[in-house]
């Protein structure tokens, strides 16, 4: 199936092939897998212990990298490093976000995806404090990264180098969630059934204030939200609009928003993205992304392939630990 790439190209052409905006969305598309990002990552988890069976021949060259990284339950020891790009890389020296903090709680613990670069951990803690200031009770944290980063078995094309995190559009409750609540509580879809607007029965101006607080953090590179949500934020932003440039419309992202921080300055092997242009996507341009054919299109299964092990090897700089170290050390 080749419809998804054609649609994406058509969107860029409609927005203006030579425009800065078209280039900006192309940058976003280069690190976000359309098919994977359409699948929202908030289905129920499990209370059972998740243990993947051992691979018969883990050293075989045709074993997908996602199968190797998913079986590593602990981080690689050593200095924290983000290696490669957001959608093709891995990490070392990851930190685990505590499952409960003063301003956050981690959801879907069975996934073991509450790992990240220390810079991401620091951002979540800082953002939790700032969210309180705009009237948000606390953060519900979805997927961050696996202990060693890399591609995942489900749900994401990015989140590979410990600098991405999903944050639910639902506030933290006033009690510490049980394991069952963390696994089984559903997130709230903020987009109306038509897909053209937010659901006004659940959306509030505080949601806009929350994303604005995140976008104004200097470490944030981009925030991905559904196009209908971006459209609503544009209408609620008022005169203070500079932060909107970091908020990028992307398929899915209707139960949560996806934050992405910049490459740490001391990680030369981290491949970041150019800063977004200091212009916002207009409501008229967002309407292109909300066309019926765009909303109705089925994900292209061909685009759901994760990078193979050789791709991650290529993303690992020569002076970094060997790819084998990241996937074989226990």
Protein model, in words:
- The chain has about 325 residues and is of the alpha/beta class.
- It has one domain: Muramoyl-pentapeptide Carboxypeptidase, domain 2 (2-Layer Sandwich).
- The chain has helices at about 5-15, 20-30, 35-40, 65-70, 120-135, 180-185, 205-215, 225-235, 285-290, 290-295, 310-315, 325-330, and strands at about 80-85, 90, 95, 100, 105, 115, 140, 165-170, 220-225, 245-250, 255-260, 270.
- The strands form 4 sheets. A 4-stranded mixed beta sheet has the order 8-11-9-10. Strands 2-1-12 form a 3-stranded mixed beta sheet, with helices on one face.
- A hairpin with a 2-residue loop joins strand 1 (about 80-85) and strand 2.
Descriptors for this entry?
12 helices; 13% strand; 3-stranded mixed β-sheet; 330 residues
